[in-house]
């Protein structure tokens, strides 16, 4: 792995029309690749609108297999631009079995790995349990980094970002970076102070994963208002705020709330230096953590 790595991410709107959404992704990917990005991250479910605002079984028709047309489109881009590309699919694995899946394409090698979202939310406007089966720690290798030509990628997806266990397990398995394709936003009726608290917490928790594990972190979120097709709510305002931070949580680049791209040159030797000064992995009391496998410690 090189001592430096140019990384980029695309923050965009998305629509029910896959062609339109992928065209938006393509424009950002090509701009970043033209500026020398070797690793590019796309947001969660970038090829469609965020369809989980309502429970509608007709929307399963949006799903595709891992080798379907959207994946082929991303694979062809990775070959053409000679990049490592991390995309997101609504995956149809079998009849009645669907996943929220991040896919990694490595230059000429095609798809080199995938990660099926492990933590699945179920909240008003985010009815993901209706659509997605969580990844399986045994069958899907769980929290296992994906080997690429630019390093070992600890790819997680959205709701996974709130769980320190997921980031730590990726770090313990040798990840060089943590990547979080994301779809998160506000309910429009929330007042401004509440909106700010939510966004600050979202940024803080992911920066903290960088700090606790001594790793750079890349987070790609979507932007724009997406209406609730059921009209049960006032929809979601996706807040953007995508960012890239270093292994001490330092913000290296951060987006606003518009369609944009971020590009950063990472010093890939910093994690080693930071971990020598802040040896959290060395001082872990692994002998005392057995209760972490319990749902709750009743006393």
TrEMBL record:
InterPro entries noted in UniProt: Aliph_Amidase/BUP (IPR050345), C-N_Hydrolase (IPR003010), C-N_Hydrolase_sf (IPR036526)
Keyword Kinase: no
Cited PROSITE patterns: CN_HYDROLASE
Gene Ontology molecular functions: hydrolase activity
SUPFAM superfamilies in alphabetical order: Carbon-nitrogen hydrolase
Domain CN hydrolase: 5-268
Keywords: Hydrolase
Statement: the UniProt record of this protein carries the keyword Cytoplasm: no
Name this protein carries in UniProt: Carbon-nitrogen hydrolase
Domain of life: Bacteria
Organism annotation: Chromohalobacter beijerinckii
């Amino acid at each position: 792995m090189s001592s430096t790595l140019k990384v980029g991410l695309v923050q965009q709107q998305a629509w029910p029309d896959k062609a339109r959404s992928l065209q938006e992704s393509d424009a950002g990917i090509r701009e970043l690749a033209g500026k020398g990005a070797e690793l590019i991250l796309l947001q969660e479910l970038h090829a469609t609108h965020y369809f989980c605002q309502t429970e509608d079984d007709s929307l399963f028709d949006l799903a595709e297999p891992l080798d379907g047309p959207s994946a082929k489109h991303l694979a062809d881009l990775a070959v053409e631009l000679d990049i490592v590309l991390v995309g997101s699919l609504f995956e149809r694995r079998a009849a009645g079995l669907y996943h929220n899946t991040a896919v990694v394409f490595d230059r000429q090698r095609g798809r080199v790995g995938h990660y099926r979202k492990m933590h699945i939310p179920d909240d008003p406007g985010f009815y993901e349990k209706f659509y997605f089966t969580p990844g399986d720690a045994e069958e899907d290798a769980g929290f296992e980094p994906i080997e690429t030509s630019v390093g070992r990628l600890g790819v997680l997806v959205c709701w996974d970002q709130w769980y320190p266990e997921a980031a730590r397990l990726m770090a313990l398995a040798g990840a060089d970076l943590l990547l979080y394709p994301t779809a998160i936003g506000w309910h429009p009726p929330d007042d401004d102070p509440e909106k700010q608290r939510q966004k600050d917490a979202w940024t803080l928790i992911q920066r903290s994963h960088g700090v606790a594990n001594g790793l750079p972190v890349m987070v790609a979120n979507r932007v724009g208002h997406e209406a609730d097709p059921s009209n049960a709510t006032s929809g979601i305002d996706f807040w953007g705020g995508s960012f890239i931070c270093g292994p001490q949580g330092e913000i290296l680049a951060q987006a606003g709330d518009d369609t944009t791209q971020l590009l950063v040159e990472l010093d890939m030797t910093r994690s080693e230096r930071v971990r020598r000064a802040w040896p959290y992995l060395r001082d872990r009391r692994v002998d005392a953590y057995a209760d972490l496998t319990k749902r709750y410690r009743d006393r």
